[in-house]
Amino acid sequence: MEDGLTKMWISFFAMGLMFVSVIVTIVSREKLKGWIQKTLLTFSFFCMMIAGLIIFLVVFSGPVPE
Hints:
Elements lengths: L3 H28 L3 H26 L6
Helix pairs in contact: 1-2
């Protein structure tokens, strides 16, 4: 990751994944039951894990040289 603007867009994508994860979790816990609920909660978990990994890589890749 070299370009600062690219890192910004990648981190926005990760934040969007976190938002999707929260919305899916709320909807599945409030409205659904059975295997559909478990499937959506698993999807939500994977979205959160991928978003966390992306943010970890963006933050620890260091500052962008000017």
